[in-house]
Amino acid sequence: MSSRIRNLNRNEVMLLNFSWGQGGLLALGSHYTMYAASPEGIYRVVNADQILSRYRNMLTKILKYIGIPEAVIIVGIVVFLVYQEVIKHIAFTFYYFHIVTIIVILMAVYGIVGGFIILKRTPPVPIIGELVVTWNEVGKIDVTNVRRVDVNSSESDTDNNQNTIEVGDWHVLTYTGAEITIRDVTDPYFKLKILKRKFGLNI
């Protein structure tokens, strides 16, 4: 393995652009360049597809074993309460309220425990990175092309859309005059601030 390509320590790296703005969150078939920051510099993640595949599998399992069953239970509760009140003319009493509350609590516990089990049973994927530029070579990072992106489908200009997040591009300038553009960095200004603090950078 090349000296510029190595396994990155998950506790040290920060993923910069995590499949936002590419047709939605973890969009199937999306292929783009993922970057990660480490104490040494900026790496291009060479196994980005494997990492995204792991998260897609996790989301699929959560939907299958937690989301759909709990949605069915919620629909069942609503149908039962409507039947009791509309058909049998039985008002929604504290008795039903307590039952519904207990069911909701059990569903929440099931969701938390189930999600934890799915997370534990999904084997981690190592982050393999190729060093693009070291921090000693970086002179400046500018944030450009800031916009809001719909995480469910495509880009959106509606700021009050609850399903949107802010993304932007990092324009990395080196002392040698080279330029690197990292697209679709989530929360770009805040992430740049955290990056400088985390790695003690003065750029």
Structure in words:
The chain has helices at residues 48-87, 94-121, 188-199; strands at 5-8, 14-15, 34-37, 41-45, 127-134, 138-150, 164-174, 179-186. The protein has 203 residues and is α+β, with helices and mostly antiparallel strands. It folds into two domains: 5-22 and 30-47 and 126-199, PH-domain like; 52-121. The strands form two sheets. Strands 1-5-4-3-2 form a five-stranded antiparallel sheet, with no helix packed on it. A three-stranded antiparallel sheet has the order 6-7-8. Helix 1 packs antiparallel against helix 2. The chain starts with a strand and ends with a helix.
Most strands sheet: 5 strands, antiparallel
Assigned CATH architecture of the largest domain: Roll
For the record, what CATH class of the largest domain applies? Mainly Beta
Task: State the order of secondary-structure elements, H for helix, E for strand.
Answer: EEEEHHEEEEH
Query: How much of the polypeptide forms β-strand, as a percent range?
Result: 25-35%
The CATH topology of the largest domain turns out to be PH-domain like
Q: What is the SS-derived class?
A: alpha+beta
* Strand arrangement across the biggest beta sheet: 1-5-4-3-2
Radius of gyration, whole Å: 23 Å
Number of domains: 2
Shape: elongated
SS elements, strand count: 8
Q: How many H/I helical runs?
A: 3
Proportion of helical residues: 25-40%
Give a concise summary.
The protein has three helices and eight strands.
